[in-house]
Every structure is written in structure tokens, then in C-alpha cells.
Design brief:
Elements lengths: L1 H22 L9 H11 E8 L6 E13 L2 E6 L1 H4 L3 E6 L5 E4 L5 E2 L6 E6 L20 E6 L3 E6 L2 E9 L8 E10 L8 E5 L11 E3 L5 E11 L4 E8 H14 L22 E4 L2 E3 L2 E3 L2 E4 L5 E3 L4 E9 L4 E8 L4 E7 L1 E2 L6 E2 L4 E4 L10 E8 L3 E3 L32
Antiparallel strand pairs: 1-2, 1-4, 2-3, 3-7, 4-5, 6-7, 8-11, 8-13, 9-10, 11-12, 12-15, 13-14, 14-15, 16-19, 17-18, 19-27, 20-26, 21-22, 21-25, 22-23, 23-27, 24-26, 27-28
Length: 414
């Protein structure tokens, strides 16, 4: 009987052990802190800026995270307040390479303290994987990273005390912090701040990634709070869901207009060129497409959509090629890119319908086309289609009938 019982219990033990072995592949283990740091270090960048012009050169800095790529063009997510002031900005990646930023390409996500920057490189860089912040709970361990722009130094006159001291932009060191979620706001603060967490931050880390235990991006580090009564520091991050929701909404409008487009606005802009509507405004190929594309033969007339003054007419090294920018009487600015020939110069007044350029294929483009943008005064780029007179297109995006709008030349302008 004892032998039977021993055999019975041995058999049960074997079955339990076998079941535990079968269950092992389904157990999910969180990454250790050093593994998350390895991910963070490769996707985190430092951002350096010089604002105020050559006479008053003021340095500013922050951090960012690589979130997209299209061929050799990379997109970086950061806090808007890091790059809010116009100036000369650069991005330094984890390999130490320095990349220039075209400030005119910087884009703010509406109603959020979040901006998207771009840089070009032949090097290969990893892209952040975006997580879902709906799975977060208070007390959960998270991580944030960045490149502080200050360090502590000792002054000869006060050898026992540490003081903040600025460091040069090429000596900023990577910093990785382990923290715990302290609060999840039901109603996010202005700018989209929702996730609160502890531990000390440093100036220059704003815009860096906040990652979960799987190394996924759940927020952009952006705001620190000092509680003077207790001397502690709290941090707030901007949910990555803001970026995802904005990205998805942009995709919804990135399609050619159809027969239902009858919207006219107070601006009464005309179409800038005749041709085929090949690409709309919105997220495209991992990056934001800030305007619309109209394809046609080289030399197709490009016209001003409204009265205004030419602010820029010349070569743009950021990918636009031969570029024209016109400031209109309503305060808005329109941009005409990839032109083959420019017919106007900076400072010149233009009339609605006046030919200002010939369609071309200069700069970064897949073929002869006009890339057209509308920038609302003090707001930035918007979808141009609702601001243009209604047109009909066929299933391929070709204009069925070019509107009866005058084509003016220089001799007809008063």
C-alpha cells in the first residue's frame, strides 16, 4: 500500500512538473532596468538650439525620441517648449553624430506641448515602439531618459557647496532614471500632461522618452514640479496616445477630395496649379506630409492663390528645392515647392491668379509636381483643401474641369 501511495504521489508530481514546463513559454517577463536603458539610449537624442540671432546668441537645449523614418529622413518627437523659439537647432544621436534641423519643418501637434522635428542621415537608427498608456496604474515602475544641459560644479569661493553650471552641447551626457507612477490625471493639464511620476529630473531632459517595463514609449517627459514645502520634485509626462490619436486623425484626411467637397471659406483661395491630385495632407510613410501634391508636366503654370507679398523666392536646401513663400493680406502664408523656374522675387507684390513659377522636380521629390502648403497665421500648417474653391476630381485624382480663373502675367498686374 505504501509503495502504491508513493507511486501515486510521484505520478502526480510528474504531471504537475510537466504542466509547469508547458506553461513556461506563456510567462511574460518584464525587461530589467538595464535592458530598458539600452533601448532608451539608442532612441533618445539631444536637441541643441541657438536663438536670438548672431548679436544675442542664447543657448537652449532639450531631448527627444526617434519615432519614425522614411528612407533617410527621421522624425523626432519632443516637447514643444524645447523648440518653441525660432532659431538654429541640431540633433545629436546616440552615435555622437550631429544633424541639422530645418526650423521651418518643425511642427507642433495642436493643443499639446509636443513637436515633431526631422533630420536626414544615411546611418541606421532604431525607432521607438509606442505603447498604450491605458494599461498604466499608480505605483507602476517606469523609466525616463534624456541629456541634461547642466551639471553641478564647485566654486573656489564656496568649496563646500555645489552650483549648477552650463556645459557645452557636445559634452552632454545621457541620463537614465527609474521612477514610479504617482498619479494618472483624469483631466489632463494644459499641453496634454497626464502621467505623474517621482524622482529627480534635470534641465535639458524635457522632450525625452518615458518608457514602460517593456521599453515602449508611453509619454514625453516635459514638466517638473518643485514642492518647496517638502523639497521634493514631481514630474509630468505627455501621453503618447496624444501623438497616436493625432496621427490617426491625420490619416483620415490624407486622401484626394471627392465630389462632396463643396466647402468654401472666407479666404476664397484658388487652386495653385492644374494637374493630378497625387497626395493629401496628413501622416504618410511614417512622417507628416504638411501639404498637398499636384502632379503635372514641367513648366505647368503655378499661380498665387490670393493677393500677397513674396517673402521668399529661391533655393531651399531642406528638400523643397526652388521655393516661394507668399504672405497674404489675411496674415496666412502659402508655400509653393519643387518649382522648375521662379517668376517672382522676395518683396514683390502678387495678385491672385498671377503666375509666380513653373512646375518642376527640384529638391526631394518623386517627379514633376507642385507641393503646396497653407500656414495659418500663428498656427502653422493645415490641410489646404478646405480653404480652396471646390473642384471635381475623377477616381485617379485628376481635375475634371479646371476652374475659370484668370491667369495673370507680370504685364497685367498694376
Amino acid at each position: 500500500m505504501k509503495s502504491y501511495r508513493r507511486a501515486k504521489f510521484s505520478l502526480i508530481g510528474l504531471v504537475v512538473a510537466f504542466l509547469l514546463i508547458l506553461m513556461q513559454p506563456f510567462v511574460v517577463f518584464a525587461l530589467q532596468g538595464f535592458e530598458v536603458s539600452s533601448i532608451a539610449k539608442n532612441i533618445t537624442v539631444s536637441i541643441d538650439g541657438h536663438i536670438g540671432g548672431p548679436s544675442v546668441d542664447e543657448y537652449t537645449g532639450g531631448s527627444g525620441v526617434i519615432i519614425g523614418q522614411e528612407n533617410q529622413l527621421y522624425q523626432v518627437l519632443t516637447a514643444w517648449h524645447v523648440v518653441a523659439q525660432e532659431g538654429e537647432y541640431s540633433i545629436r544621436t546616440s552615435d555622437g553624430e550631429l544633424h541639422s534641423v530645418e526650423y521651418e519643418q518643425v511642427m507642433r501637434i495642436p493643443e499639446a506641448d509636443v513637436a515633431i522635428l526631422e533630420f536626414r542621415s544615411e546611418n541606421s537608427y532604431p525607432i521607438a515602439k509606442i505603447g498604450d498608456d491605458s494599461q498604466l496604474i499608480e505605483g507602476m515602475t517606469i523609466y525616463f531618459a534624456g541629456y541634461p544641459k547642466e551639471h553641478l560644479i564647485r566654486l573656489d569661493s564656496y568649496p563646500e557647496q555645489l552650483f549648477p553650471g552650463n556645459i557645452s552641447e557636445d559634452t552632454r551626457n545621457y541620463k537614465f532614471v527609474t521612477a514610479n507612477i504617482t498619479t494618472l490625471l483624469v483631466d489632463p493639464r494644459e499641453g496634454g500632461y497626464r502621467i505623474g511620476y517621482d524622482e529627480g529630473s534635470s534641465p535639458g531632459m524635457s522632450g525625452g522618452p518615458v518608457l514602460n517595463a517593456d521599453g515602449e514609449l508611453i509619454a514625453i517627459h516635459g514638466m517638473a514640479e518643485l514642492h518647496f514645502e517638502v523639497g521634493s520634485v514631481g514630474n509630468f509626462g505627455i501621453s503618447s496616445n496624444i501623438f497616436q490619436n493625432w496621427q490617426q486623425s491625420a490619416v483620415a484626411v490624407a486622401s484626394p477630395p471627392d465630389d462632396s467637397n463643396t466647402l468654401l471659406t472666407e479666404y476664397q483661395y484658388i487652386w495653385p496649379a492644374e494637374g493630378m491630385f497625387t497626395s493629401g495632407y496628413g501622416w504618410r510613410w511614417g512622417r507628416m506630409h504638411r501639404g498637398i501634391d499636384i502632379a503635372g508636366p514641367i513648366g505647368t503654370p503655378v499661380v498665387a492663390v490670393a493677393d500677397g507679398v513674396v517673402e521668399q523666392a529661391g533655393w531651399n536646401s531642406g528638400g523643397y528645392g526652388n521655393l516661394i513663400e507668399v504672405r497674404h493680406t489675411d496674415g496666412n502664408m502659402t508655400r509653393y515647392a519643387h518649382n522648375n523656374k521662379l517668376n517672382v522675387s522676395a518683396g514683390q507684390s502678387v495678385r491672385q491668379g498671377q503666375q509666380i513659377a513653373e512646375m518642376g522636380a527640384t529638391g526631394y521629390t518623386t517627379g514633376p509636381q507642385l507641393h503646396f502648403e497653407i500656414h495659418l497665421d500663428a498656427q502653422g500648417p493645415v490641410d489646404p483643401v478646405p480653404f480652396l474653391v471646390a473642384l471635381d476630381f475623377d477616381s485617379l485624382g485628376r481635375m475634371i474641369e479646371w476652374p475659370d480663373q484668370p491667369l495673370l502675367n507680370d504685364s497685367t498686374v498694376p
